[in-house]
Amino acid sequence: MAGVRLQDVAEHAGVSMKTVSNVVHSHPNVSAAMRERVQRAIDELGYRPNAIGRRLATGRTGLIALAFADVRLPYFSELANVISKAAAATGPGYRLLLEETEGTIEGERAVLSASEAGLVDGMLLQPSRMSSREIAERHGDLPMVLLGEGPAPLSVDRVMVDNVAAATAATEHLAALGRERVAFVGHERSGMSSTSRQRIMGYQEGLERHGLPVDHDLLISTGAITSQDAAIAVGAALDRGVRFDGLVCRDDLAAIGALRALHERDISIPDDVAVIGWDNIAFAATTFPSLSSVAPNTQALARVALDMLAERIAGFDGIGRHRVVDFDLVLRESAPALASTDAPGGELASVHAGSAHAISA
Amino acid sequence: MAGVRLQDVAEHAGVSMKTVSNVVHSHPNVSAAMRERVQRAIDELGYRPNAIGRRLATGRTGLIALAFADVRLPYFSELANVISKAAAATGPGYRLLLEETEGTIEGERAVLSASEAGLVDGMLLQPSRMSSREIAERHGDLPMVLLGEGPAPLSVDRVMVDNVAAATAATEHLAALGRERVAFVGHERSGMSSTSRQRIMGYQEGLERHGLPVDHDLLISTGAITSQDAAIAVGAALDRGVRFDGLVCRDDLAAIGALRALHERDISIPDDVAVIGWDNIAFAATTFPSLSSVAPNTQALARVALDMLAERIAGFDGIGRHRVVDFDLVLRESAPALASTDAPGGELASVHAGSAHAISA
DNA sequence: GTGAAAGCGCTAACAC
DNA sequence: GTGTTAGCGCTTTCAC
Q1: What is the least distance, in Å, from the CA of A55 to any CA of chain B?
Q2: Which of A33, A138, B51, B182 suits a disulfide with A119, CB 3.0-4.6 Å?
Q3: A156, A139 in Cβ contact below 8 A?
Q4: Considering only CA atoms, which of B15, B10, B14, B19 is closest in space to residue B47?
Q5: Crossing angle for the helix pair A74-88 and B74-88, to the nearest 10 degrees
Q6: d(CA A75, nearest CA chain B) in Å
Q7: Residue of B nearest to A137 (CA)
Q8: Which nucleotide is nearest to A29 (CA to C1')?
Q9: How far apart are the C-alpha atoms of A158 and A166, rounded to whole Å?
């Protein structure tokens, strides 16, 4: 039955509301007989505490908002899953309110400027377009932790993977495989995100460390962050004579598009072109050939983000903390492990603020 | 500033709470001068209405729960995206609380038996394991609409696609392409879901209509609903000598796994084996070859489900309504359109309770 | 160990 | 047009 109130239970059991409340919360100071009597009343009436009433009284809703561009992007749905599980296990057990920004500045503003306050206890936001200044100004006093390598004001907590280091590690792996012309695929043709920018920086760093050519022709941008656009862009590059034997992809979407473009032209992977993606999405294991990929430690990311958010909710008010979580380089058929690091878990490189492990899968 | 209350604004502006409330809600009956004065107070204090207070007073939270197995499954993340957009456009603008059941009966029970009531105004649930009787018993009086072809008590609203008809259409398309041994891939090895059951029924119906062999060897089950398991299962079937020239897959995950198993064995798609998946996930367009797929009309599904839910929330209390939305058969390289129905939108078949359109993509 | 009563912030009669 | 006031359902001091 709905509409059964705490007070109804109290009357039915012939006790005060406080006593019922004590029973509901398993408070120690209540006699066994009383507990029994009240519990019977609860069961008979089918009483269920009303969440909103409780929340008005306590000031906590138990809800946190998770905001990112689009849940259809595999990385984000993976993130939503991991965070939702971790959130349920955090403190009182948080639940997730899903907010999509569509990767637009309007969407990001809307998420931060919700006209109502107090619905959620805090927010996890992966921004991509908003400037760090605007984030700092708009978030008001909503407890917040930023996800990812996007803009982040010093005043706000943030968790990310070292994208530069990871891109360097991926590029160096291709170099170690003997690749001499390594291209980068999948950054936005216009309005490049900080994600793409950092990955390209790391890619260049990797090339330079091995004395490989850094060439604008080897930067293959796409119209949108989709595998279709990547397939088109890589196909066009090949058709206009751009040659490469290794491909660092902005993400697995781009990598899957690249796979398709290469297949269409009967280019063998990894013999002719080795490919590394990013995010290690579930499909990476079943593409043909299977895809090597940079795998951010999303478990750690969720854990760290939620811990920091819980501290903020609890009242912590210090300067923003910026944390870095580690990543793996998961090596599959499209860019296999070197013979010498063939064993799963073989250490490939140790990079600043997190280690890159090469894992053969 | 947080902690600014309606009352603070009223005092600051020297008016009553009611007047402030009128301004906040853009009520007509308030003079321009008054509106101006109050608005200034709101801006000066940075007042934002508190959602929980409002919700306690109105009894509505503006939240609906969306519960399904796992947001990482592409079909569900697509659904979450479509429903979240449609929900924002429904009535007062609903937001989504994400709940994952992990496809287990415990998970489904947990979602329905949340110990607190009143947090959400209603629920959209895609059940897979729970019996219809248990659903009917447990949902209490929470406004609810069921999604998908799982168990559904007559007392509860439900929206689905006609899975039998769609599977028949897919199978018949393969028959029309001249395929003579059409297998089904991807149902659970044990504990088969009603989804798989219905799709297999439609598959059998399609075979029988064309006098094609119905053979237990042609039912290739998998351990889990993943593309990896499908790749293993299809590979094993091929290796033990099962032969087929067409494949109806339970979903695109299974289809992508099948693609991989076929590629590994140098079997040509669609020449040797034509493949049709289900759900028309984004990747279907960029696999190699691209994947033909049954495309449920998720837009319509979201629209119908939310409309029914809104009616339930508004108090509608009639018997459960079971609605069927249509689907398309999107034809790509893995099982191309017939020459005669080559034109996009060419009508393939008209099936009960929804039309199947063949669309070449 | 149990009860009474004062809020939490907002809405909506109802009165002015 | 604007103000007063009684809740919405729960928690939580503070008496008893």
Answers
A1: 7
A2: B51
A3: yes
A4: B10
A5: 80
A6: 9
A7: B1
A8: C1
A9: 18
CB A356 within 8 A of CB A328: yes
Per-residue pLDDT of A113-151, as tens digits, reads 877 888 999 999 999 899 999 999 988 889 999 999 998
CA dist., res. B39 & res. A87, Å (int): 38
Q: Which CATH architecture has domain A63-161+298-327?
A: 3-Layer(aba) Sandwich (3.40)
Q: Where, residue-wise, is CATH 1.10.260.40 in chain B?
A: 6-49
User: Tens digits of per-residue pLDDT, B304-361?
Assistant: 999 999 999 999 999 999 999 999 999 999 999 987 544 444 334 333 334 566 777 6
Phi, psi of A22 (to 5 degrees): -60, -40
Residues with CB under 7 A from strand D: A 3, 5-7, 17-18, 21, 24-25, 49-50, 52-54, 56-58; B 14-19, 22, 29-31, 33-34, 56-57, 59, 118
pLDDT band for position A359 (cuts 50, 70, 90):
confident
Q: How far apart are CA B83 and CA B149, in angstroms?
A: 17
Nearest chain B CA: its distance from A259 CA (Å):
8
Q: Which residue is nearest to nucleotide D2 (CA to C1')?
A: B19
- Comparing CB atoms, the residue among A50, A74, A286 nearest residue B231 is A286
Q: What is the pLDDT of residues A185-213, one digit of tens each?
A: 999 999 999 999 999 999 999 999 999 99
User: Could you give the CA distance from residue A112 to residue B233 in angstroms, rounded to a whole number?
Assistant: 47
Query: Which nucleotide lies closest to B57 by the C1' atom and the CA atom?
Result: D8
Fold that domain A163-296+328-360 belongs to in CATH: Rossmann fold (3.40.50)
Rounded Cα–Cα distance for residues A205 and A199 (Å): 10
Q: How far is the CA of A7 from the C1' of C4 (A)?
A: 13
Q: In what order do the strands lie in the sheet with A95-100?
A: A322-325, A157-161, A144-147, A122-125, A63-68, A95-100, B95-100, B63-68, B122-125, B144-147, B157-161, B322-325
Q: How far apart are CA B117 and CA B105, in angstroms?
A: 21
B256 and A56 within 8 Å at the Cβ level: the answer is: no
Q: With a threshold of 0.90, does the pTM exceed it?
A: yes
Range(s) of chain A covered by CATH 3.40.50.2300: 63-161+298-327, 163-296+328-360
Instruction: Provide CATH code, domain B6-49.
Output: 1.10.260.40
